[in-house]
Amino acid sequence: MIATLFLALALSLVLWLPAGEALAQAGPQPAASEQRAELQDVLPQAQLVGKGRLTVWGFQVYDARLWVNPGFRPQGFASDALALELSYLRDFDNQAVAQRSITEMRRSAPISDEQAGKWVAALVKVLPDIKKGDRVMGVHRPGLGAAFWMNGKPAGEIRDAEFARLFFGIWLAPTTSEPGLRSALLAGVGP
């Protein structure tokens, strides 16, 4: 019985399924000067405003960091350029990450199965399998889509503004499944 429960828990974590309430742990507030080299060209004015850790049932999943330009407003995140970095603390299959992303995106808006299939294929194309220690950064380009970097190197783009809005909404929309992580990411943003 206990082995079956542990196996179910492990499987749900591997597939990045919500096995229980996830906790976001905010770290110390980031220094305004903290910047990733890959942002110098695409968001040179951006400042790190928040960070947090996603933990599900005691399993640490990733550390997240959010960079925004001056004047950023959380309620208008979909119209602002921003960068979100996830530093993974365990391995994940890219197909599982893509599927989980669609599940989370559907919290904000209905997505047809046909559209979901296209977006899963696009995500799998730009993101390889993730290993512990990998850094994935997504840059929201309002009206254009999203660009992705893997460990500081360009990984590809998804040129679809609706995809980008819903994808970054996984962390920033009020409908997020992780409101504690959202609060930690937006901690350094004024009202």
Notes on the structure:
- Helix 3 packs across helix 4 and helix 3 crosses helix 5.
- Strand 5 and strand 6 form a beta hairpin.
- 32% of the residues lie in helices and 27% in strands.
- With 191 residues, it is α+β, with helices and mostly antiparallel strands.
- A seven-stranded antiparallel sheet has the order 1-2-3-4-5-6-7.
- The N terminus is likely disordered.
Please sum up the structure shown.
By secondary structure, this protein is α+β, with helices and mostly antiparallel strands. The chain has helices spanning 2-14, 39-42, 94-105, 113-126, 161-172, 179-185, and strands at residues 22-26, 47-56, 59-68, 82-88, 135-141, 145-150, 153-158.
Keywords:
7-stranded antiparallel sheet; single chain; disordered N terminus; 6 helices; 191 residues; alpha+beta
Mean pLDDT: 84
Distance between the termini: 49 Å
Mass-distribution shape: globular
Tally of DSSP helical segments: 6
How would you write the strand order of the largest sheet?
A: 1-2-3-4-5-6-7
Set down the secondary structure blueprint.
Layout: H1 2-14, E1 22-26, H2 39-42, E2 47-56, E3 59-68, E4 82-88, H3 94-105, H4 113-126, E5 135-141, E6 145-150, E7 153-158, H5 161-172, H6 179-185
Antiparallel strand pairs: 1-2, 2-3, 3-4, 4-5, 5-6, 6-7
Helix pairs in contact: 3-4, 3-5
